[in-house]
Please model this.
Amino acid sequence: DGGITQSPKYLFRKEGQNVTLSCEQNLNHDAMYWYRQDPGQGLRLIYYSQIVNDFQKGDIAEGYSVSREKKESFPLTVTSAQKNPTAFYLCASSIGNPGSHNEQFFGPGTRLTVL
Amino acid sequence: AQSVAQPEDQVNVAEGNPLTVKCTYSVSGNPYLFWYVQYPNRGLQFLLKYITGDNLVKGSYGFEAEFNKSQTSFHLKKPSALVSDSALYFCAAGRGGSYIPTFGRGTSLIVHP
Model:
């Protein structure tokens, strides 16, 4: 899983709560991404960021928020507005621009379960 | 819009036999193509990529992939499968610029002893 860490590994949330998933990288990568993985649906892009203090919505951003205050960190908040948040969340980073030909490096993931 | 199709949810192969995991893509212009592998409850690991040049790309762990422009395919192959190759495999396609690569739904590879 390279130089990307995600915490916690498992997270349980009660309905109506906001929770924040941590993602840190020490690869000096500019671009960072958040994906959601559900069985049989592959990876779906939630948000991505090219530089500090800038981020863009992906395909399924509703009910999620992010920040990029430091190059190394890209936390994801799952808000109470996300109606079906139970999933496996993956953070990734890559060199250069998000749409470049550079491969992505993935963290180990956080499994979020709503109780 | 760009899209990736992995037509097989699951591929079964006997250890020692060759394996193929299929991927087709729809991308305007020249595509960038990637293969990643995911072991249970882990993140994805990069295997190989095609940007330009030789249509046969060699990657990690003895895997290779063949880019076929006319068939818009990028199938993953390995001459002799190992039980330890059993995992979930994802194909991804992009086209540069501001377009984030799109991932396929994944194919579960099961290698039987």
Q: What stands out?
A: DSSP finds no helices and twelve strands in chain B. The mean pLDDT of chain B is 94. The CA atoms of residues 20 and 92 of chain B lie 16 Å apart. Chain B touches chain A at residues 9, 32, 34, 36, 41-46, 49, 51, 90, 94-101, 103-106 (CB under 8 Å).
